[in-house]
Structures are given as structure tokens and as C-alpha cells.
Amino acid sequence: MNALIELFWFKYSQLQYAVKAADEHLIGILDRELDPILKAVYDQRATSVEDARLQFHFLIDIMRAESGDMSSVLRHSKLLQSLIDRYFAATGVADLAGFDLDHRARLPSKGLADEGLLNEAILDCLTDRIAVITPDYRYLYTNPANATHLESRPMDLIGRHIVEFIGLQRFEQRVKSYLDRCFGGEVVDYTFAKNVDARTVVVRCRMTPCLSSNGKLIGAILVIQEHADRRRAIAA
Predict the structure, then answer these.
(1) pTM score of the predicted model
(2) 134 and which of 9, 80, 84, 219 could share a cystine (Cβ 3.0–4.6 Å)?
């Protein structure tokens, strides 16, 4: 289930990039690839409570991502309703035939995504700049604060390589090595200074591995904070 869902979102991020680039050929290819993956996720009958939860969350996430397209929202709301009908009887009691009711002891240890760190409703409200970067160095998620800093909308960044925003030199000399360490399982925390409007700003970047519930690497969660250089302020 997880593998199918992750494959869907990977293809979806590629589709967003193709739409932005107005690449009609690539859009057609990705559209044809996404529908069978969506159908495979929906058609799979969950054998555990955890799998059922993944299916529900998957459809809800799609509706959130496609909130601007009413026809898409209606289509996926119907799928969501049919999932409810599949797993719940008329009395509202879950149809748990074949489910392992003692699933709590066997659930994998919580990854970052399960702990709520990827709850977009929360991240979108934070003033810190936050992004999730995939192992091929592309944006999987960015909150509005980070998108505004990059003079873009959050959806416009999805699927784009970070080199477009930080430059090849900075990427090769510093950021790539830090990301690679994070993809290897390390929490990376570093600071650097930059000049903004004739003042020095200290930037802190913390990179944390982003894992799915089964422990598979999704990417790196970046939290970026900027502060005025207090040492300069005191000296002045």
C-alpha cells in the first residue's frame, strides 16, 4: 500500500512540473500513468486497520491537493464515500473481517510523517520556512513562508530542482553534501551569514530525515530560520 501511494505522489509531483512547463506530451503520459495507480490503491482491500487508514488519508490528501478543481474533488469524494461503505456497516461499526485487531503492538515505530511533522495544516501556519526535499533534490512540499521567500506559490515549487533557487555553486559546494548526509539518516544543523539590504542576517538550517510509517526514506525536512546578527547590533 505504501509503495503504491508513494509512487502516486511521485508521479503527481512530476505532473505538476509538466503542467507548469506546459509540456502537453509529458502531461498526457503522466495522466495515463496516474489513473492505474490510483485505481490500484483504491481497489486493494485493506487487511489491517493501518492499511485502511492509509487509503482514507490518501483520498483526503488528493482532495486537498485538487481543491481548486471541483470535478476532481467530486470524483474523489465519491471514492471516499465508497471506501466508507466498504469498511463500515450500516450501523457504523467497522467491517473488520480479516483485520488484526491487535494491530497496535505490531505497528512500526512512528516516522516523522506519523508524528504530525508533515501535517500541512500546521506547517502552513508557521512563520519559519519549511520544505521537504526528495532524494533527487526536488521540492515535495513547501509552506507558504518558504514559497513567499522564493517569490513563488507553494504549488509552483513542487517537483522543481532546488538548484533553480539557490544556484549551482551553492548547491555543489554546500547544500548537496548536507542533504546527502541527511538522506543517509543524519540530522544536520548548520548556520551561515548573508547580507540583506546592507545588514547581516544569520540563517540556521536544520535538516531531518523524513520517513514513511514503514521506515522508508521520503526525503529531508528543512526548517530554515533567519535572525539579525546580534553581534553587529551590540557593536553598533
Answers:
(1) 0.49
(2) 219
Phi, psi of 227 (to 5 degrees): -140, 150
C-alpha 209/C-alpha 221 separation (Å) is: 6
Pairing mode of beta strands 188-196, 199-211? antiparallel
Give residue 197's pLDDT band: very low, low, confident or very high (50, 70, 90). Answer: low
Which cell is 168 given? 549551482
Chain segment 86-137, per-residue pLDDT in tens: 766 433 444 444 443 333 333 333 333 443 345 555 566 667 888 889 999 9
- What residues form DSSP beta bridges with 210? 219
Distance CA(143)–CA(140), nearest Å, equals: 11
**How is residue 229 annotated by DSSP?**
-
Q: Is 68 helix (H, G, I), strand (E, B) or coil?
A: coil
- Half-sphere CA count of 163, side-chain side, radius 13 A: 9
Coarse DSSP helix, strand, coil percentages of the chain, rounded to the nearest 5 percent: 50, 20, 30
Is 120-235 in CATH node 3.30.450.20?
yes
Residue with cell 541527511: 182
- How far is 161 from 175, CA to CA, in rounded Å? 12
pLDDT, tens digit, for every residue of 2-33?
A: 778 888 888 888 888 788 888 888 888 888 88
Using alpha carbons, select from 220, 200, 199 the residue that is nearest to residue 211: 220
Greatest Cα pair distance in the chain:
72
Question: How far is it, in rounded angstroms, from Cα 235 to Cα 179?
Answer: 35
